[in-house]
Amino acid sequence: MKSLFRNSIIRSKDSILKESLQSQLVACVKDIQLDHAHSGRFQDSSEAADSLCTVLEAIFIHGIKETLADKMAIAIGDPDVRPEPNFWPALLVFSHRDLIDQIGRLYYVCTDVGRCRVWIRMCLNDGLLTSYLQSMLAQNKSLSSFYKRSAYLRDTEVLDMCITLIAGIESYSFNMFCNTSLLNTWPNPPLVMSGVWSPTMKACPITSGTDIARSLMAEDSASKVAEDSMSSVVSVASYYQSSLESNFDEEEALKIILGTDVEQSREQNKSVEDFSSSPHKNVEIK
Question: Hey, what CATH topology would domain 1-194 get?
Answer without folding.
Answer: Methane Monooxygenase Hydroxylase; Chain G, domain 1 (1.20.58)
